[in-house]
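Hey L., structure's done. Input below.
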Amino acid sequence: MNAPASISTSVATDLHWFAERAEALNNSAEHAEDVLPELGRRDLLRIGVPAALGGSGGTTSDSLEAIAAVAERSLTAAFVFWGQRTFIEYLLASPNEGLRERWLADLLAGRFAGATGLSNAMKYLSGIEALQLTARAQGDRLRVDGRLPWVTNLRHAGFAAAAAVQREDGGAAIVALADSQPGVRRSADLDLVALRGSNTAAIDVDAVDLGPEWLIHEDARTFCPAVRPAFLALQLGMPIGLARVALRTARERAGSAHAIVLPKVAEVSAEVEAQAAALHAGLADGRFVADAPTLFRIRIRLAELVQSALGLELDATGGRAYLLDQNREFARRWVEGAFVPVITPSLTQLQGELARHAAQGQG
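Output:
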């Protein structure tokens, strides 16, 4: 396993909880409420967070690799991990110290759920869609209405979600919405094809009254580009982990087809690790803040490599891949892999954004 130094050997070997429940997490909500506390119990949510704030230190790259390690066991659990860790990143980047003081300890421990409702905001920045929440100013307060149709990690035991709101003056702010607020309503779980244990639902927002204490950042156009590298990089832990486990399985099961399969496995493995290395390098030197197109290209290529890796696992496994009594993991990973191209920002959206940049001579 390609685990970062921030993950101790004891914790890394303890990830079997997610592997043992991967099928159930993919197919039902039976263990949905347990995923976050299990991530917290292993201190995975603390990775990449400064020790002074309750974390275990390290970098965003360390957190990305922790998400990849979980994704090797269960993409559903990794999806929850990404949502929680990204919300934590928003609080770390926010000038609102009160929000950190109120929630950070419980978020890091996995006692309270944080959801990244900024997929809409990221598309708004690229001109793909309008913001889905509107805000009317009432003094220093905002009255917010609208609907977020797809948000992950909305735990029934309690959650907060980050969201962008369109103000009447044409600007946009980033706010926190909590299930405890009057007017915030969580829908039933969305009827997903897979990842059904991820607590994914819609949020209806009806005349929610927000004071300054709920403001993550007053300017979405400043905040979102600054956090986008972490938003996307942490997300990419999912395809990296899924590709790694598929390629490792293909290597182990190649059998008589090894002469054909193994060279292809080696080629795809090398490119997966090259893309991961480029991702880590870009996070380390901060280039993705100004050079989003390079990050988009890494996202697109990793999605393609996941499909190649799963295809090689199928080639190596042969007909056994279709026998559930012999191999349930391939069928689950195949469906998990179908999610990678469509998670926001989808490949189609990123390709459109790259075309726009090219037309403007921006990369």
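The first strand starts at residue 113 and ends at 116. The beta strands are 113-116, 133-138, 141-151, 159-167, 172-178, 184-186, 201-210, 215-217.

-- N.
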